[in-house]
TrEMBL record:
It catalyses: ATP + protein L-histidine = ADP + protein N-phospho-L-histidine. Residues 86-105 are annotated as: Disordered. GO terms for cellular component: plasma membrane. Keywords: ATP-binding, Coiled coil, Kinase, Membrane, Nucleotide-binding, Phosphoprotein, Transferase, Transmembrane, Transmembrane helix, Two-component regulatory system. PANTHER family: HISTIDINE KINASE 1, TWO-COMPONENT HISTIDINE KINASE. InterPro entries: 7TMR_DISM_rcpt_extracell_dom1 (IPR011623), Galactose-bd-like_sf (IPR008979), HATPase_C_sf (IPR036890), HATPase_dom (IPR003594), His_kinase_dom (IPR005467), HisK_dim/P_dom (IPR003661), HisK_dim/P_sf (IPR036097), Sensor_HK_Regulatory (IPR050736). This is histidine kinase. Its EC number is 2.7.13.3. The lineage of its organism: Bacteria, Bacillati, Bacillota, Bacilli, Bacillales. GO terms for molecular function: ATP binding; phosphorelay sensor kinase activity. Pfam families: 7TMR-DISM_7TM, HATPase_c, HisKA. Residues 478-700 form the Histidine kinase domain. It comes from Cohnella phaseoli. It is a multi-pass membrane protein.
Length: 700
């Protein structure tokens, strides 16, 4: 056993190593989101008074360039109530920047709600290859014109607020630039969001460069979203397997909600996938997911450290979060996006409370508290970054998914450490139990094996006795049922002969022949009863042979072909497909009996000129052979179909065995097929008659 003093340094070393690994992973994943360093290359050009000069820009060496700077801007002044007229104001506006946070060139402030037109003249060398422009999310609808021609739009910007349709998804526009200048015109309208305008840079480059930029951003976002969703569903599965661990479902909700929000913002993969989703639905889901993620994350740490984070805090978070989600669901987007600060204060408040609780837990040396504190601290840093970014107070990127990924990495270290400690304890306990119970375990194992063998023997004997008793009972019942009538007839004939009621020699001979026929029928019936009892008790031993279907076809044709022809019945026996060499393990004598019952039954009910067809084929998907016996007789009454294979069941309009009409032929056939591991059923054919169907396993 390791002493307590020795455990602490190892635990601390593990925590520090895990923290360093997680930070390195976060930096590696998020590095691709930052702009590529320019090194010692030329300074990026900026637009001045609506013109940007890119004639000297080395596209091959430096790649893409942001079209930042001073654009010409035309702002629509809202109609005055007195006159009802609207007018435009021409000025300049720095890009990127939202309307309310960017001062135009004339010094007059802009409102975030309105309609504006951006214009930029790009001076460049004549380009032989296709060029492209990468457009970010623009609040909240726009139309892009290149050279006076509409080339792309998101939603529908309009002077009239009622006609404007919001839509926010990044886009890439490709165009040719054979001349020395390109005129851009960007019409933007916003009546639905708290911020109007363009928050991030519009980037220009060759088609290949822009495509690489787009793919890099998409890949980063897909990786983050995929990781979050995968880990979320993983923890949801853990909760389904162990319902007591409610912390797992809260952590799953945290990952899934942040994954949902990641898919709604940025590249907008969910909006692209669900093309019918409106901008209003997407923004409501984004805000609800933001609040839901904060609630789930706080609830997770409340469940993990209930002493430091009391239930009253979780109840407060639940109530506030429910109100915020309800507001996002029913209030117009312009209103609840303007109140974003309330959502951000909610997240900051409960994130700070979680940090305080984790600090207390780490001080009390709770298991995994140090790693959890590091993870939450990293997450809070990204939350603060996103609050500054979305309020327009800083130029950055959305880092919340990276912060959550950092927290997940730290949580994985916590889980792995717990598993490691649990395995160590389990191994120690297991070693002690092995030493204490080694001798007892051997004795229990021997006794258990003896009991198991005895139990199996008793079960087999019990099953066998039940079968024998059932067979005996049925045999007695069958004999009393089916022998009474013919014996009564024989007795009547004998009494008539004794009393000279039948005196004429010819009539006496006829009576004796009838009696002999009844005796033969009794012998056949007794044999059938005996065979059926053996079959039901599973006492009949089968002599199995591997028979190809081609042999079966020839055998049946030889046995029944001439007889069918003599009765005026058209008979066919065919193999469908390439199944002639397929082998079936059967007892030939018993299966001959099955075919005799079925075919003579068919002959009995098929009129002269009718047809009997027997087909054989394989069923590859089930590994079986299918045999169909179809006739053109009157068929079976639908009510009688389920009872055809019952013993003694006969009706004037139903089918019965062809082997003397004793009512046992089909019952015997069913038992024989079942004994071969197959099955038999019957149905009426659409064109008349009925079809008996047998399935037998193929010999592998």
């Amino acid at each position: 056993m390791t002493s307590g003093k020795a455990v602490m340094p190892i635990g601390r070393w593990y925590a520090y190593a895990a923290a360093l690994a997680a930070v390195a992973l976060l930096l590696a994943v998020s590095a691709g989101c930052a702009p590529s360093p320019r090194g010692s290359g030329p300074e990026e050009p900026r637009a001045e008074k609506g013109v940007i000069d890119l004639t000297e820009w080395p596209w091959d060496e430096e790649g893409t360039v942001p079209l930042d700077g001073e654009w010409n801007f035309r702002w629509l002044e809202r109609a005055q109530e007195a006159t009802g007229d609207s007018s435009y104001r021409d000025t300049t506006l720095n890009m990127p920047g939202t309307w309310g946070a960017t001062e135009p060139g004339d010094g007059k402030e802009l409102d975030d709600i309105g309609y504006g037109i951006y214009r930029l003249t790009i001076l460049h060398r004549p380009m032989n290859e296709m060029m492209a422009i990468r457009l970010p999310n623009i609040s909240t609808s726009y139309e892009l014109y290149i050279g006076g021609k509409l080339v792309h739009s998101r939603g529908h910007p309009d002077i009239d607020e009622r006609l404007s349709i919001p839509h926010q998804v990044p886009a890439t526009v490709h165009f040719s630039a054979p001349g020395d200048r390109t005129e851009l015109k960007l019409v933007v309208a916003n009546y639905d969001h708290r911020h109007g305008g363009i928050r991030t840079s519009i980037v220009m480059g060759t088609s290949e460069q822009i495509q690489r930029l787009q793919l890099r951003h998409a890949a980063q976002q897909l990786i983050i979203m995929g990781c979050l969703l995968m880990i979320g569903f993983y923890h949801l599965g853990l909760y389904i397997l162990r319902r007591k661990e409610t912390a797992n479902v809260l952590f799953a909700l945290l990952c899934l909600c942040v994954g949902l929000r990641t898919g709604l913002i940025g590249e907008g993969f969910i909006v692209r996938w669900l093309q019918g989703m409106s901008w209003e639905t997407a923004i409501r889901l984004e805000y609800a997911a933001f609040v839901m993620a904060a609630w789930a994350g706080f609830g997770y740490f409340c469940k993990m450290y209930p002493i430091e984070l009391k239930k009253v805090w979780f109840k407060a978070a639940t109530g506030c979060g429910a109100v915020l989600i309800l507001v996002a669901a029913v209030v117009p987007p312009l209103s609840f996006t303007s109140w974003l600060i309330v959502n951000q204060l909610y997240v900051l408040l409960f994130s700070g409370r979680a940090l305080a609780g984790l600090v207390a837990a780490a001080h009390r040396k709770r298991e995994g508290a140090v790693l959890a504190l590091i993870g939450v601290a990293g997450l809070v840093v990204t939350i603060v970054n996103d609050i500054l970014f979305y309020n327009g107070w800083s130029r950055s990127i959305d880092l919340l998914p990276f912060g959550l990924l950092f927290l997940i990495v730290m949580n994985s270290f916590i889980i792995s450490r717990r598993f490691s400690l649990t395995y160590d304890r389990a191994e120690q306990l297991s070693a002690q139990l092995i030493e204490w119970n080694s001798s007892l375990e051997n004795r229990i194992e021997e006794r258990t094996e003896e009991l198991r063998r005895s139990y199996v023997t008793l079960e087999e004997a019990k099953t066998e006795l039940e079968r024998i008793e059932q067979a005996r009972t049925r045999l007695v019942s069958n004999i009393s049922h089916d022998l009474r009538t013919p014996i009564t007839l024989l007795r009547g004939y004998l009494e008539a002969l004794r009393d000279d009621v039948i005196s004429e020699p010819e009539q006496r001979d006829k009576t004796i022949r009838s009696m002999l026929s009844k005796v033969d029928g009794l012998n056949s019936l007794i044999q059938d009863l005996f065979d059926l009892s053996l079959l039901e008790a599973r006492r009949l031993e089968l002599t199995l042979e591997n028979i190809p279907l081609s042999y079966w076809q020839e055998r049946i044709t030889e046995q029944y072909g001439l007889e069918m022809q003599s009765k005026g019945i058209l008979f066919s026996c065919e193999i469908i497909g390439e199944a002639a060499d397929t082998l079936v393990a059967v007892d030939v004598r018993q299966m001959d009996r099955v075919f005799a019952n079925l075919l003579y039954n068919a002959i009995r009910y098929t009129p002269e000129g009718g047809e009997i067809a027997l087909t054989l084929r394989t069923l590859p998907e089930s590994g079986r052979v299918e045999i169909l016996v179809a006739d053109s007789g009157p068929g079976i009454e639908p009510a009688d179909v389920p009872r055809v294979f019952d013993r003694y069941y006969r009706k004037n309009h139903s089918r019965s065995s062809g082997s003397g009409g004793g009512g046992l032929g089909l019952a015997i056939s069913k038992e024989i097929v079942d004994l071969h591991g197959g099955r038999i059923d019957v149905r009426n054919s659409e064109g008349g008659g009925c079809v008996f169907r047998i399935e037998l396993p193929v010999r592998l």
